[in-house]
Amino acid sequence: MNFTKTIIHWYSINKRSLPWRETQNPYKIWLSEIILQQTQVKQGLPYYEAFVSKYPTIFNLAKAPESEVLKLWQGLGYYSRARNLHSTAKYIVNELQGNFPNTFKDIIKLKGVGDYTASAIASICFNEVTAVVDGNVYRVLSRYYNIDTPINSSKGAKEFKILAQELIDKKQPATFNQAIMEFGAKQCTPKNPDCENCPLNQSCLALSKQKTDQLPVKTKTAKAKKKHFNFLVFISSDGKTVLEKRTGKGIWQNLYQFPLIETEKSTNEKTLRNALKNNTLLYNKKFELTLYNDEPIIHKLSHQHLYTKFWIITVENIKTETIYVKDINKYPVPILIGNFIESFNFDLV
Questions:
Q1: Would you tell me which of 63, 73, 122, 308 could form a disulfide with 297, CB atoms 3.0–4.6 Å apart?
Q2: Among candidates 302, 3, 42, which has minimal Cα distance to 185?
């Protein structure tokens, strides 16, 4: 059975109608690929549409303030993608006169662009014969060829890239790349793949060896660290609160948050009151303290799990720069903070 022809034929029948498949505009393809990194299509689609609507060209995106871009990105996570997206847009406009690079070797030099994204853009927009390898491709190839090399190893990355490059259709690289990714997303799914109705089931080695659920292989990563976050939600008598901009390097860089006290273990009201005695945001010791969520909200990141409590502090005055609570939704915040803001309903303050 010809793997490549079978995949392309399957795609011609089963492909989803998606807006970025209706264009070869490198700006829009690049935008879609950055959004879809670490993000499923159903979640990324409305963000893509929002970005294209607000920033129809790379010039529009380059002119936008970073805070506005981060606000539009809010909820997608991995905010470095948004910062890199904005930075690269400005670079292309200011240094390349708005001309998107048109070869793999130049595209991969862009900030926030790796082998997969560069291959996708180069093949879809410029018909360059360079294979994509994403999570879907790893899964399809590892199962079909029964490859147990860990996909998150340098050896695995090289091995699968070489294999994908051998399989790509030289005459229609864009179609093949989109076909194999779609096949992994819809047919050869992570759990409970529909092997019975798979067009490759007669030659799939993993299926014949009953190893479908064992592939692809990933080496175990370090255990996520456990952190305890206590966010201080100040509310003054004149309807103001405090949001602080995170300026240090990190996943939430340039996003806003409530003042934070990090502790080694879960904190009770007595312990937090003691911690607040010397807090510079308080004019005096007169304040009301209320725990918003009795059970910590667990926010899981790739390298750490945040056990989070939100403490409502009602005071007469706040001894720092403040914002009116009515303006709180103007600021880009991590999804953890955004969810709290939505559930707390500051409109009633």
A1: 308
A2: 42
Phi, psi at residue 277, to the nearest 5°? -60, -35
Counting Cβ atoms within 10 Å, is residue 55 exposed (0-12), middle (13-18) or buried (19+)? buried
Residue 178 has pLDDT above 90, yes or no: yes
Non-local (6+) Cβ contacts of 158 within 8 A are: none
Q: Which residues share a beta bridge with 45?
A: none
303-323 pLDDT, tens digit each: 889 999 999 999 888 878 899
The residue assigned the tokens 């309903």 is 345
Query: What does the pLDDT average to over 256-275?
Result: 90
Question: What pTM was estimated for this model as a whole?
Answer: 0.85
Q: Is 112 helix (H, G, I), strand (E, B) or coil?
A: coil
The answer to whether 342 is a known catalytic residue is no
3-state secondary structure of 218: coil
Token reading at 246: 């995170």
Residue 106 and residue 26 in contact, taking contact as beta carbons nearer than 8 Å: no
Q: Which domains does the chain have, with CATH numbers?
A: 3-214 (1.10.340.30), 225-348 (3.90.79.10)
27: which 2 tokens?
A: 């700006």
State the DSSP string of 63-90.
HS-HHHHHHHHTTS--THHHHHHHHHHH
Q: Which is catalytic among the residues 33, 128, 159, 182?
A: 33
Residue 319 CB neighbours (<10 A): 14
Amino acid at 118: A
Phi, psi (5° rounding) for residue 188?
A: -90, 65
Number of other CB atoms surrounding residue 294 within 10 Å: 6
